[in-house]
């Protein structure tokens, strides 16, 4: 199991990477680029969208699953915070924004893969339009768990 922490920021992206011990059969390296939404316009009629990526590299043919935590909110509505102010958002498995990327429980999906080289998995982020929020930097921490 591998864990990486990904900061979701409105103005910037920060990344922390933790790698545990690998099994004797396979060794995998995991890295991620967080989702950075940039500036949010509460008067815009369209949602604000952006992408990030999880990269998995293994030295032997390995199947795995990528699970995302709910962060500061719930899977149905993740939340970024700036002090006591909240900004709703969510993370999805595809550019159609049909399936919330989670841990496979409830109505969430997880992403599966198999690789003996490097495989990239896009994270699709969306902040719904029409939210009245205070000016500032909003962030949330999502734990990415890789099981193989």
Whole-angstrom Rg: 16 Å
CATH class: Mainly Beta
CATH topology: Immunoglobulin-like
The CATH homologous superfamily is termed Fimbrial-type adhesion domain
Q: Kindly state the mean pLDDT as a whole number?
A: 85
Count the E strands.
Answer: 10
Q: Architecture in CATH?
A: Sandwich
How many helix segments?
0
N/C terminus separation: 6 Å
Strand order of the largest sheet: 2-1-10-5-8
What amount of the residues lies in strands? over 45%
Largest sheet features: 5 strands, antiparallel
Q: What count of structural domains?
A: 1
* Order of helix and strand elements from N to C terminus: EEEEEEEEEE
Look at the helices and sheets and give the structural class. Answer: mainly beta
**Quick one: overall form?**
elongated
The portion of residues assigned to helices is under 10%
Low-pLDDT parts are 1-23
Topology diagram in text:
Blueprint: E1 2-9, E2 14-18, E3 28-33, E4 48-58, E5 62-68, E6 78-82, E7 85-92, E8 111-115, E9 118-127, E10 139-147
Pfam families: SCPU (PF05229)
InterPro entries: Spore_coat_component, Spore_coat_U/FanG
Protein name: Spore coat protein U domain-containing protein
Task: Offer a concise description of the structure.
The chain has 148 residues and is mainly beta. It has one domain (2-147): Immunoglobulin-like, CATH 2.60.40. Helices cover 0% and strands 50% of the residues.
